[in-house]
Design brief:
Helix content is about 35%, strand content about 25%. The protein has helices at about 20-35, 50-55, 60-70, 115-125, 130-165; strands at about 5, 35-40, 75, 90-95, 100-105, 170-175, 190, 200-205, 210-215, 220-225, 235. The strands form 2 sheets. It has a 7-stranded mixed β-sheet with strand order 3-2-1-8-9-10-11. Strands 4-5-6-7 form a 4-stranded mixed β-sheet, with helices on one face. The protein binds manganese (II) ion. Manganese (II) ion binds near residues 79, 106 and 176.
């Protein structure tokens, strides 16, 4: 059975047109193929507006998630924008890899845990519905990403690896930083995020691990791929999923 892991959809009342359509198509495909789905945090936007409001703006998707959850086909972990929406982490027992940790990753984010990060979250929760505040927060995030993005990502990866070790897992799949990542010899992986142009996700099968994406305009393709148990040789392939 395949497991599809996706995160950071950040769907709310102001999501660009088409983003929720991609999310619905992703779940439709998974439902049809019987793939297991893990939504790994920050699916609906509960930080810049109320979660109820964000979910109500995408009622069909919300219901689809609820239905697949009921069927046991979908599970969710908590993100920092939707902390009540799932468990802290999920551990999968993979026949070849062993224990695979799936967690959003904000718990080890150096910025999120800092006083500045907490203050930012508190401000966003209280007055985030004001577009100007949301814009300012986004701008600050954007600038921070540009300036210290690489250093932050390195720190984030290192902290996630620590978490993988503490949870006695062989591999960890995270989200949160909106930067997908899969490398042959690294036990840290990131499934990416959702933009109006594409929905990024990670596919775990019994013998492979790869990054894939569903694109606006009905194309799906695989990107970086890695075969489990082949010594970590990188492999790139393109096929429909
Ligand atoms: Mn996050």
């Amino acid at each position: 059975m395949r497991t599809l892991i996706a995160s950071d959809w950040h769907l709310g009342t102001y999501s660009p047109p088409g983003t929720a359509d991609l999310a619905r198509r992703f779940l439709d495909r998974a439902r049809a193929s019987g793939d297991r789905v893990i939504l790994n945090g920050d699916i609906f936007e509960g930080l810049f507006e109320s979660l109820d409001q964000a979910e109500a703006a995408h009622a069909a998707l919300r219901d689809q998630i609820a239905e697949m959850t009921q069927l046991g086909q979908l599970s969710r972990t908590a993100g920092n924008h939707d902390p009540e929406s799932g468990v802290a982490s999920v551990v999968l027992d993979h026949p070849v890899l062993g224990r695979v940790l799936v967690a959003h990753g904000h718990a080890v984010d150096p910025l999120h845990g800092s006083p500045v990060g907490r203050l930012g979250d508190a401000i966003s929760r209280r007055i985030g519905y004001l577009t100007v505040v949301r814009g300012a927060a986004r701008m600050a995030e954007h600038v921070a990403n540009r300036v210290v993005g690489m250093a932050m990502e390195r720190t984030f990866r290192a902290r996630c690896r620590g978490m993988i070790g503490r949870e006695r897992c062989e591999l960890g799949v995270f989200g949160h930083i909106h930067r997908r990542y899969l490398a042959p010899t690294d036990n840290y992986a990131n499934a990416g995020y959702l933009t109006p142009a594409r929905l990024e996700y990670l596919v775990l099968t019994d013998d492979s691990l790869h990054l894939a994406q569903l694109e606006a305009g009905d194309r799906a393709r695989n990107d970086a791929a890695r075969t489990v148990g082949d010594g970590g040789r990188p492999r790139t392939r393109q096929r429909w999923v």
